[in-house]
Amino acid sequence: MKFAGTRPILRLVLALVAVAVAVLAVSGCSAVKDASKSDTAKAKVGDCINVIEGSMVDSKTEPVDCSNEKAVYRVAQIFDTKTDCKQEQTSYEETLNGGTTAFLCLTPNFKEGSCYNESQTTGYKFVACTAPEASFKVTKRVDGQADEFQCATDTALGFRLVEDPKTTFCLGNPK
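and the corresponding structure tokens:
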């Protein structure tokens, strides 16, 4: 015996089940992909990063609160593939089995009065001002302006300018 109208209801139920399975499959795949990422690679734009140990191949980093003096970098952009970052930015790439799992463009987030080590190969790292590896001390930080003329020329070792968000860092001798 057949009942009128059961076929359209059955089709609707099957369609809803198929959509639910597809959603679970897609979200499950992204969850597996994210599971292989470090906490740093899972960071969002605006989050801050501490460099525990810099390396060309295997840096040790961790997300930290942006107010922390060890918050050396702020995440400016996030990509799934290798991308050229802006001149004032540092790139962070995480790979797994030869493929890029995360690519971040990072801007400096130096704190006024704090000292840092600068390396051409590994970027910036927070250090004590008394440490022999201290390269510079941030003598002044100016938010909202990227203007080298904010720094005193007689006491400065130089400056770093960030365009987005506009920030000027005046640098001096760490000692």
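(Above: one complete record from the training split.) The first helix runs from residue 6 to 35.
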